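Structure ticket #2291
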Amino acid sequence: MMKKLFSLRSLSTLAILWIAVSALILGIKVSVSEVQEASFFVVAAFAATLAYLLGLGTWPARRALPVIVAAGFVLAFIESAGLAGPVRTLLQSIPQFELSVLRWLAGNEAPDLGGLQTQFAGLEATAGAFLSQVLTFSVEDPRVREFLWDIPLLLLVIWAGWRVGRHDQILSALAPALAFHAFLLNYTGRETFSLQIAVFALILLIGINQKWSGPRERTENSERAARETYSAVILLSIGVAILAGLAPSISIHEVAKKLSRKDEIAKTIGLEKEMVAAYAISGLPRQHLIGLSPALSRTVIFKVRTGELPPTENSILGAAVPRHYWRWLTYDVYNGQGWATSPVESQSYSAAEPLFSIPNTGYQIIHQQVEKALPDDTRLYWTGSLVSVSQPFNASWRSQPESLVSSPDPTFGADMLGAVSDAQSYQADSIVPLVSAEELRGSSNEYPQEFTAKYLPLPETLPQRVRDLAQSLTAGIENPYDRARAIEAYLREYPYTLDVPPPPPDRDVADYFLFDLKKGYCDYYATSMVVLARSVGLPARLVIGYANGVYDPIRAEYVVHEAEAHSWVEIYFTGYGWIEFEPTASELEITLPDQLPQETLPDGPVPNENFQAKNSFFPRWNPLPPALGLAAATAAASIFWFFRAQGLWRVHKTIGSLYAYVYYHGRKIYTDAPLYETPLLFADNLSLRFKSLQTGPAPAVEEIRLLTDLYIQETYSAHPVTTDERSKAVKAWKRLFWRLLYARLTLRP
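Resolution: structure written out below.
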């Protein structure tokens, strides 16, 4: 075993294994709270090294693995419990104790056991207390959390070290660790750098431990093949590592998405979902308001064309301008002093990738062409429920679409905090409900549990008089729509002004606005309506963004200024989704028809055909996003380099250079060829192996014979190979290469 251990391959393998272990530890530390100071590497490196060393030996797995697991768990317990110092002190005192025992045996006085007993008692007490915390699952203690995370880490690295030590099936050795690693990063939304390192280490381990076959003697061709092979391994390792960071696993993502709903379990074991800093606010969301400055209020933020009305030369319209709210962020958590968001999961989307399928009925598709005016604006604006965007973007989800398996929600449970994109110009498709007041009055008072759990909670500190006011405003009203309208109408009686002081730090915002301030701006109105609606059992949330803007009929576009910064309310209606309400007195009231005219009742989603025909804002082809382009370029370069290394896309100046690749690939098929077999005999036997194939391309007998004859002519004949013959050889080799590759994959010697 020592000879195996101190070989260059074994030492290199162990070093790369440590890199893979370090990458996994890095992934855990960036994903789990309060374990950044944990001594994971000491435990994992010890277990991986021990497993690797025993894997090099002859011990069977049934004997070796229990020993490795036991040793790893003991070390993990010592490190997590903080016993390393006491154990070290105890071990250092043992030689002195042994010396005192020897002196006692020689006739001196009995050794003093008090020091050892004290140290051992302290060690036992510390270990017992820590074990009690572990058994009671006291994960609030970082040491307990460290030990609990040591368990999966140990099992993964022990398996990896053992299988790598056997130099057998390297992929299966690291596959569990990679899957676990990918899940952690996907769940918490962290960067994939550590995963890229792990993939890089995996490919290197596969390359180093591959049993390459070739001529036994060292020749120029064998040395060249070795150099090219290991160069290809390094290049492919880098390429695949880059792809690992750019193309996350769909299956792992789906698992993470499903498990991410168990937030209480995730929080317990320390998994932290990454929060977008710009979104993680508390207090009233004033960052969208611009104050009283006339100069700032006229600053254009963006322009939108929807195509619902055609351009006209008249500045006075004969038709009503469709009204839209341009949303940016949606908040769900009210804490008494302001708004924040539940944990979110970041998801990247490519150009024109749909977020969910459009419902069959009851919705209108709105096509929007948005031109942002400020170059540093990364926000994404849209109306209604976003379906797709023509540019790559990132969305932050509280609940991703289709998170509710059997839900009456027509948008499949989608709950987005917001979205960002660097694109200054984009097209967006969204849907808005086509619904009447009569339909909403008839909607059910029963809501999915996921909605009541998220959109009904109010802080315990909310004064009772706020709840009493909500009850009095809706007394005797049975249906949810009229209850919402009653609350909305009451709030619209309050005067609108921006010139108000901030709420006192010890006061509930809604209570302060409703009973003391009694005037304010949109955030006060919207916050109070959400609180009152939740108080009477209506799921509600707050949305911030921009109001309709100024409509330019000549260009048929909405011009949205900073002055239109706004917040409003959405209330959920079972079977219809989220419906907008406008409690702010300075804005026009949102009115719905009592009934939809019979001729407008849709059999399916209503498209905006005028806009689509004239503008074609959604071409079916979009340029590749930069990340996907880089991944495609890396993959193409890796494929080209690999096949060139195999002799396909290479300039062969001599027939001998070309024949070397024929012999190299042929030996993979005709594996029992004698070392000193003549080229003609080798060609005949290789052709026989080809003929044994039952399926696939026709046997390459003619190509093999042609290349062999030309090789013999060039090497042993006085007649040089002509240019025409060399051209025929190159063409024959290109045909032969793919048959050789097919035979290597299908033929079993």
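Closing remark: Residues 286-607 form a domain with the C8orf32 fold fold (CATH 3.10.620.30).
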